[in-house]
Amino acid sequence: MIKLIDILKEITQFSNWRMPSLSKLKQEFKIEQEIKGNEFWEDEDDFLNAIKNSKITTITPSEDQDIDYRSGTESYEELLDLIQSYKSYPEFRNEKTLKDIYDGFKNNQSMDYPIVIEFEDGSRRVFSGNTRMDIAFQLGINPKVLLVKSIL
Q: Whole-model pTM?
């Protein structure tokens, strides 16, 4: 029996990851560190410096299992249920934004690297791009991420 995921793996070839813009990076820092009250870096400058020194890494499904704060949804419906619980729903994240990400992967459109933090003890946590990572895995794509060291 042929499964949809097998078909998608055959037709989805994605190779268009890109560095997030400076404004996007600053926005992610503001949301994930300042608004949510996390302490991964001393300040925005330390974060941007860590980004400059980050490593682009491909994450496999088995490696993904060890990344904290990953949702690991396995379908559009599960992902939609998840984003409906976000404060940004429906103004900034909604059915259309999800469809646009799926279509972006399928059409090889530019996609910002997700950001994964690596701590001194080797543990990892997603900082931004959880949705992009979920969709990539659902489509049989191993996402490339910026692996960024936390200094705290």
A: 0.90
Could you tell me if residue 12 is inside a domain? no
Span 66-120, pLDDT tens digits: 999 999 999 999 999 999 998 889 998 999 999 999 999 999 999 999 999 999 9
Domain of 60, in residue numbers:
20-149
The number of helices, as runs of H, and strands, as runs of E, in the chain is 7, 7
Compute the 3-state secondary structure of the chain and give helix, strand, coil in percent, each to the nearest 5: 40, 15, 40
55, burial (CB in 10 Å: exposed 0-12, middle 13-18, buried 19+):
exposed
Q: Is residue 61 part of a domain?
A: yes
